[in-house]
Amino acid sequence: MEKKVIINSDKHNIELISNGCDSPQKIILCLHGFTGNRYGDGYKKLCEGLPEFFVCSFDSAGHGNSEVNSLDMRMELITKEILDVLNYLNMTYENVPIVIFATSYGAYRAMIALQSGELKNVKQIVFVSPAFKMLNILEKWKEFNYNELTKDAIVPMKRSQNRYLKYAFLEDLNNNSVYNYSYTQKIPIKIYLADKDFVPKEDTIEFSKIYPCDIEYIIDEHCPQNETNWQNIIEYLRGI
After folding, report:
1. Is 108 helix (H, G, I), strand (E, B) or coil?
2. pLDDT tens per residue across span 18-67
3. What is the pLDDT of residues 50-109, one digit of tens each?
């Protein structure tokens, strides 16, 4: 049964959804991709496949039903959301190990949070189709050149939902490269890399030279569709 809880973060609230597991063996915190929401990118499949774990998710700032407008997205705020959710989980489920499961943009957010050194009780990180070079990806996807933008520029995020991005957020992406951190906190990372992913595989390989990762190649899309791949991911999460 789905459960919801409100967590205060900065000047807004986060609605954390979960499968409602009362006495979990483990916590799986899901971080969705860009323009996605809390229900996507594996959350539902993990809820179905791992009922013995507390599987939870939330809408990142500017996404889904977040109280934060997309124009107000900033990396500091986005990182604080993750840390505030982790703080809630650690206080509510003391000593229960936490695994971060993140896809695409969620992987970028997770690494920005990791460089803070404050991911308490996180034992493992699992990425599916990580998008570590978010600014480069957005430039190609949304057809703009960051270096040609003015400070008052606004670029589309998702026109169908009337969502746009300010230059300030893109500047945050430019100034926060996951390739430039020393990462004083070391947490094991497993990566599932799809062969049909539109994100260049070289980006992940480059990252793995900076932060050693266990990379497993799968035959699938950026957002995995193959049920066998999902079952393998679920069994991996169950076993760690």
Report:
1. helix
2. 999 989 999 999 999 999 999 998 999 999 999 999 999 999 999 999 99
3. 999 999 999 999 999 999 999 999 999 999 999 999 999 999 999 999 999 999 999 999
Predicted confidence at residue 1, as pLDDT, reads 83
Strands (E), the chain: 3-9, 12-18, 27-31, 54-57, 98-104, 122-130, 154-158, 163-166, 189-194, 214-218
Contact 24, 53 (CB under 8 A): yes
Query: Three-state DSSP class for 104?
Result: strand
The helix/strand/coil state of 144 is coil
Residue with tokens 């774990």: 53
Element spanning 85, H or E: helix 75-92
Level-2 CATH architecture, domain 3-133+185-234? 3-Layer(aba) Sandwich (3.40)
Tell me phi and psi for residue 238, to 5 degrees: -65, -35
Q: What is the largest CA-CA distance in the chain?
A: 52
CA distances from 183 to 71, 113, 132, 203, 206 (A): 29, 10, 15, 18, 16
Provide the angle, in degrees to the nearest 10, between the axes of the packed helices 134-142 and 167-175: 140
Closest CA to 128 of 26, 20, 31: 31
